Every structure is written in C-alpha cells, then in structure tokens.
Amino acid sequence: MITIKEIAKQLNMSTTTVSNVIHGKVSEVSDDTREKVEEFLRKVDYVPNINARNLAQNESKIIGFALKARADKYENLIMDPFVSVLIGGVEETIRKAGYFMMLYISSDTAEIMRHVSTWNVDGLILFGMLDDDGIRVSEKYKKPIVCIDTYSLEGLKHFTNVGLDDEQGTYEIVNHLIANGHRKIAFLSDNTKGVDLARLTGYKKALEDAGIKYKESNFLKIRPRSDEIEESLKEICERSKEFTAIVCVSDLYAVTLMAALQDRGISVPDDISIVGFDDNMLGQLHRPALTTVHQDVKVKGITAADTLLKQLKGEKTPNQIKLPTHLVVRDTVKDISR
Amino acid sequence: MITIKEIAKQLNMSTTTVSNVIHGKVSEVSDDTREKVEEFLRKVDYVPNINARNLAQNESKIIGFALKARADKYENLIMDPFVSVLIGGVEETIRKAGYFMMLYISSDTAEIMRHVSTWNVDGLILFGMLDDDGIRVSEKYKKPIVCIDTYSLEGLKHFTNVGLDDEQGTYEIVNHLIANGHRKIAFLSDNTKGVDLARLTGYKKALEDAGIKYKESNFLKIRPRSDEIEESLKEICERSKEFTAIVCVSDLYAVTLMAALQDRGISVPDDISIVGFDDNMLGQLHRPALTTVHQDVKVKGITAADTLLKQLKGEKTPNQIKLPTHLVVRDTVKDISR
DNA sequence: GCGTACAACTTATGCGCAAAAGTAACCGCC
DNA sequence: GGCGGTTACTTTTGCGCATAAGTTGTACGC
User: Which residue in A49, A171, A213, B264 has the fewest CB atoms around it within 10 Å?
Assistant: First the structure.
C-alpha cells in the first residue's frame, strides 16, 4: 500500500501538502500543486491507512453494533430475521455517513465494553438486554450509546433507547380481539421483562378497560430452549381450550404455536384465534395469514443509527424514541361475537 | 484510556518491559516484575489501543465480512434468516481466534475492496456474487479471500469457495419425487447462475437418469422484485396444473409459492407436490411441513471462517469445499405411484 | 581473573498520518 | 523601507505500540 510519505517523495514535496490536498484544504495549497497531487492520487489509487489516521486523530469512524444475548436465547435471536433486517438498516445508514460497522455478539457486557474501548469505537448501538452490571461498565466508557428495545429504567437515565410503543401495539390488538367477541384471552411469552413486559402491560390494560379481569393463569409461559420447547408447546396446546384467543409476544411464537396446534388437529382460527407481534415473513407466509401488530424493523435500525450519528455531532436527542405500530388484520382471528 | 507509557511511568520502568509482560514473553522479564505489572494492569483495567498496535505490526485483526448483493436482490437477501445465521457462525469462530468482524454490505465490489484496504483487513469473507470485475479488483488485493456459495469458475482459480454439494442435493430430492411417481416436475428459480445453476444441474441430471426429458418449459422463472413478485406468482400458479411437482430453489420460494397456491385453492400436496432447499424455519413451521434438502448454515459460516483462519496461518486449504446436504422428508410430497 | 554467556532490563526507532509550528517569499502601505 | 499580512509551502512532533539494538550486572568455566 502506498503511503503519503511515498507520494510526497515521488512528487518532490512535503507530506503535509499531500495531506492537505487529501483533506480538501483549499486555502493551503495552490491550484497547480493540488491538481498535480490529485492526479497522482488517482493514478496510484491511494487509500489511507485508517489505523494511522485514527491513531493520530484519536477517533475511529467505527460504530459498534453489539448483540448482547443471554446464552440460552442466543440461538433463537440470531436465527430471527429481525436481527439481520436491523443490521441492514444500521449498516446502510452509518455507511452513508462515512462510518464503518463492527459487529460483536456476546452475552457478556464487560467483554463487549472491552472490545469497544480497544477499538476506540466512536459510538455503540446495543441490541439486547442491558443489565445493571452492563450499565455500570458502559457508564465508565464515555462514548454515546444507543440502545434498541431496551427498557431498563436505570439505563434510560444514561442512554437513548429506540423502541416501539409496544404497550399501545398489544392494546390495539387485544381490543381487536375483544371487538370480535373474545373474552378468554391468554398471553404467551417467555419472560416478563423489557419489551415483553411492555407488551404484557398493553394486554392487561386492554382487558381492564373492557372490564375483563386478568388472572395469573392467563399467562402462558413458553420455554425457548430447543430441548424444552416441544414439551412447553405440548403443555400450552393442552390448555388451549381454556381460551378463545392467544396473544403471542412475537410472530415467531405465534407461528410456532400455530404449527403445534395444527399438528394436534386444533384449527386456527376456528377452534382458537391467534395473534402475533412484529409482522415478519413468518406470519405473512403462513396460512392462515397471521393477524399481528406491524413494526418497521429497518426503520428501527435506521433511527437508532441516525440518533447515534446526531449524538456524535453533539446534537441533543430525546432519551426515549417510540416508533409507531399498527394493527394488521389477516386471517387468524375469528369473529365469535355472533 | 491508560497507555503503556503511563503504566511504565507509574511503575518506574520502561515501556518495553510492560509490553513484554502484556505479550507473555516470560523469558524476558523476571517473575517479580511480571507479577507487579500484571497486578497493575488488572487494577487499571488496561486495554490496548488496537489502532496503535495494528499500525506497529501492520496487521489489523479484522476479518471483513462483505455481503455483496445485487441492488434488486438486496432486500430479500438481508431479510433471509440465512444471512444472520451465517454471520453468527463466522463471528463466533473468528472471535474465539482473537479476530474482530467488520461487516460491509454493498453491491459494488470496488467499493468493498477500497474498504478492505483502508482498514488493512487481514482477510475477507465474501458472500454473494463475485463478478469478473470483482475478481480483478480483489486479485490486486493480496490478502486471503474465502467466498461462500460463489461458483465462478474464474473466481475459483484465485479464491477458496465454501459451498454445498448443491447438485447432489437437488439430485436426491428429485429422485425422491420420482420414487413417489412424479414425472412432470418443474424447477423454480429466479436465475440460472451460481448456486441456482448447480441446483438446476442436479435436477436435470436426476430427470435424465430416470429417462425423463427436460424441456425448457419446465423452468419456472420467478421475478423476486417486490413489485413484480405477485404477478410472477400468479403466472406460475396458473401453470401449476402442467406439473405434479415443483422443485423450488430455496425454502423461501417454496413457502412463498405454497402460500400463493393455497390462496388460489390449490392444495399442497394433494393437487401438487412442492419441495424446497435449505431447511430453514420457514419450511419447518409451515403446515404442511416442507420436504426439503437440509444444509447447516451455521457450519457453513464456521467452515468459511476456519478456512480463512487457516490461510492466515499460512496453511494450505483446498480451493473448493463442499459441505454435505441431506434429504428431509416431511409432508409436501404426495405419493402418486399408486 | 578474564572472557563468555545470559538474564533483565532500557533506549531508540518507526509504523502512517494529522497538525502545530516554523520558514521564506512576496505584496502592499503609511 | 521596515512592518504586518498573506500565500504556499516545509519541518517537526506525537498519537500508542512493538521491537531491534544497546546496556548493565552477574554467574560460571577454565
């Protein structure tokens, strides 16, 4: 790789002059030499050594994208098309702004932060749970952080979060079920934290507003680990007659459940109505097509990246951004209101 | 961030000694000082500045993962869970080996290569089409490159490819169809290059070996662009009665087609049998569950990364690695042999 | 008791770049 | 005609690290 020094030597001038041309410092260089340098640069296809530049400038032009997953959920997470769409949105946005994306997948916040400070990453986008330990570590690290779908109260004090109005999303879809005559409505999820909690809250609120009492037994807990999911699904299917509808916390679970239900001869939506959340390919291609809450994942990625870019420029940003959702009515809800 | 220099100063020794401890050069440092330094390093939570290290060593510890997609296929590609699983496999492998992953998505090989040389990336994993132009550019760049699913004859002369025995995969599944009495078998794809060509070849070979003549009209071309796919699907569904089975080049297309078929009241597998290729979530969760050819995408990613790592160590690797596939019989093929 | 070998260091150099500080020539101006 | 200001440069410095080369001090063999 050719260096500025070498170019300067061949052109018989100083490295600073070459550097100034590269940085477009018009006022420092005469038109004549500028053209000469520019032509030469083109000829040799000069590419700067970013390590040297970063070292000299104490910046990196890197944005870290850290996927922090609990080890047991890791596999499901990376399988989820959600993640790649998110990554696509982020990558596109930062590339246009002249940044590069370093991807990091781990279950250990401290490890992620070590990585981040090693590379002197300019900013971080964090997807996944941010635990208290994580917050403490990242606090020390003085670069901007934007979280995606992270609803830690503690974390919100320090970092921007880009998420959805999840509560409103389930609120609407549960209302849709209620409008179709459903009253025995279950909620299916694998945990009650973060996003799942917000969605559960919307569900409870809709029930409450319709005068339906929420019982603990309405909560169907699914165990996502691959060695437990079959058993878990079996239990849920057996209990399905207790309800006329099940609100699933994600399309992935909704479709997984529908497959399990159909395998047992339980028909959707005739025997039971199912709704999801996310509106991804899985539900769109399933038949019957899934009624769900739509979110635009790519926009989520773009928004997170944009927000981080703004912070990098020193602009203030709100510390909580909630993207809208909307109901998508398809074919998995039966009108039982008569 | 604390530097070696600062540590040396505080410990009242030279930077070389500190550096030697960091690099575990046992023979150079006495046990006494080594322990002293190690303790201090732990205390201040020292993290090396990679830019400086890379500059000094002329390496980068970065492995580039470039996703090169035709602009019109881009959206589908990044939507595909395939990609995130692949990325997951690669990331995990290189991280364990002390490398970092820089992700780059583009449709322009020259742009990718510029990126790669800017960062002085140690090696590159390329997923997607490698056109002749791309080969020329990457040739110049003297770092190891491993391609995934890239069947360019020209490219194979220069780079290792990690792929599947695609031909064998479709050969087997078409034989499965033939064994079930099918003779009017279509092949559905959106192009006839690379992977798609290999799968088509296996399909043709199976037909030939069974004494069935392949006709041009057996090839169902689907247009993947979102504004054309509906129209495309409609045409294919209308022609579906010409065949008793359709071999789809991917699970994504198989499931997309099944949805379109079901929407028109055409039943799978009663009216027509459908098979796919990949064995991903989409086909697993669909009902009827898709009969398909299994490939292990994560292993593909791991293999690509391992191969690159070997090349980085100077080891020789075969320039063509074909991972095995196997048939997964589920519920979308009807036995019509009587 | 002299040379050699080796352990345990330190000093000095350079990676490629950006930028602060320095220089030299020229121009205008009261 | 000396002085400030400008243009178009060059020289120098340092970012943080790795490492080649140099410097002690000491043990050991003969």
Answer: A213
